[in-house]
């Protein structure tokens, strides 16, 4: 009987895997259509200058307005898109939609768009970015990109050369989720980035956890000595903000300032 129970558990496990595989394939198919069906949408969240309280830019964050499931957050579909080529199309869509917002809506600060590490393997990336910038007549400095350290794992040299091409197009670069991945000071020195975004996981317990506090202070000092701006992600309350101000962290983002909101919230 024990043997049989073991077997049936394996069968159940198999079925769960199979169901998951089927649902991934369905999501992949649906994502392909989501662009044409205009189901994707960008929400904007302000990045704020901590000393003046002024918004310096907005991060564009993708949501999927699914006909049955409602508003789906990116963590539930970006990883699936990254496991197939759909991420390339999603990436282009986000870049073009940012460009359209900049052209059509009266938003007075730059928009910053997230780039998947997978997009670095796309040989058409830079050409497509350049033609979008031209098509939408995007002024230099009005669009920024956010990349993560994992963009550099496969091939540092080619990733750096792509970064330099972005810079030449007038697109400035933020290093996102900093502190969670593989970071070397040599890379930081060579990367044509202007901002470091400290991952939310370090900010969360900054009041009570001395280790996190020290890490954040270390990142702020490191960034400043390299001439980079620092953004603290995930600021949720006044106490965290006060700590970060004392640490001379210059920029912040988080629910304390605002959750990501639809573009319509920011225009008259
Ligand atoms: P990210 O680029 O690190 O974006 C910041 C995430 O933190 C966003 O989650 C934002 O809503 C959330 N956040 C901001 N402030 C707070 C806070 O105070 N508390 C908490 N708990 N969370 C806060 P979101 O919008 O769910 O996006 C998750 C991730 O999905 C992003 O992380 C980014 O890696 C990815 N993503 C979003 N849009 C795109 C896109 O257009 N392309 C690509 N490739 N990835 C995207
Ligand atoms: Mg980001
Ligand atoms: Mg981040
Ligand atoms: Mg993230």
TrEMBL record:
Shown part of the complete sequence: 65 to 332 of 332
Record protein name field: Bifunctional diguanylate cyclase/phosphodiesterase
One Gene Ontology MF term: cyclic-guanylate-specific phosphodiesterase activity
Domain EAL stretches: 24-268
Taxonomic placement: Bacteria, Pseudomonadati, Pseudomonadota, Gammaproteobacteria, Alteromonadales
